[in-house]
Structures are given as structure tokens and as C-alpha cells.
Amino acid sequence: MIRTRISEGVDSIPPWALEYLAAVTVEDDGEWAWESTAAFGWAVGHPEIAVLNRALERAESGDESWAMGILEHATFADPEAGIDLLERLLNSPDVVEDLLFVSCLHAPFEQDFPDFPQYWEPDTELDYQVEISDDLHERLLAIIGQSIDPDRLKHFDDSYRFDLERAADEYGPANDA
After folding, report:
1. Residue 171, phi-psi category: left (phi > 0), alpha (psi -120 to 50), beta (remainder)
2. Closest CA to 64 of 100, 93, 37
3. How far is 40 from 66, CA to CA, in rounded Å?
4. What is the tens place of the pLDDT at every residue in 77-122?
5. Most-buried pick from 13, 82, 97, 129 (CB within 10 A)?
């Protein structure tokens, strides 16, 4: 998925491969296979498979962990789409792991490739950089500040890469007036 998206474009990812990855579960296929399905996120923007919708549906049906992997990889592939997915996840009444979803965005903000799949060093093979603008970073803080209780953000501020306290103060509900 990663190699194909970067080298040939998202349209070149075969839909059958995405359907296969979307069907993998930890119960039926094991943890390693299930973790590997996070590469599904690299197909964000695919013309035939709605990656963000699938991730949201899985999260809303109780498979939030799978959606977390998709969120991270989708953000590597297309940071704006990843932030869109985070917003949809945080605004869903059926999703509860708010700060865990936020933590999925640490890696794309700090490195160009995910740490998974194992035993592959994509930076030696592929010319790719994740580009996250200051505006997109501000949008992320706004989404976090508007979606998560300000007291929780302030309490966990030191545990996250993002300035959660600033998100709470500048974008939280107190600023809606």
C-alpha cells in the first residue's frame, strides 16, 4: 500500500487488496496480521473505497483500535484527511477513546513513515516527506479543543506531543461565547 501510493498514486492500489485488509480481524487473523491492516490508511482518497468512512464505521461498531491504526497511517499519507478523520471520530457519539485517537497523530507529526510494517526501512527506498502546515496544526488544536473536555486536556497536557492546554484555552467551549 505504502509503496504503491507513493510510487504510482492512490488510484493504483487494487480495490481487492483494500477489501482484504478491511476484512482482517484480530480474532480471526491474529494480532500481527491485524496490525498490518493499518496500511489500509494509505489508501485514503481511493476512488472506489471510502477509507475514512470504513474507519469510522469500525470505530463506531466497537473496533476503535483498528480505526486508530488507520488514523495514523491515513495521516502519514494525507495529513488533512487524517485530521478530517480525527474530527469525525471525536464527534461521533459512539466513539469513546478520544485522547487515544489524538495520540495516534504523534508519529506523523514527527517522522515521515510509520514504524510498522516491521523489517522495512521505507526511507532508504522511497522519497517521501509528511508535510503538515502551521494552519493544519492549528486546525488540529481547534478540533481537539472543541471536542474534548478542557479539564481532561489540561490534566493530560504533559503526556502528549500537542499543546492540549493551549487547545483547551484557545479553542475550548469557553471561547464559543
Report:
1. alpha
2. 100
3. 10
4. 999 999 999 999 999 999 988 999 999 998 898 888 887 666 677 7
5. 82
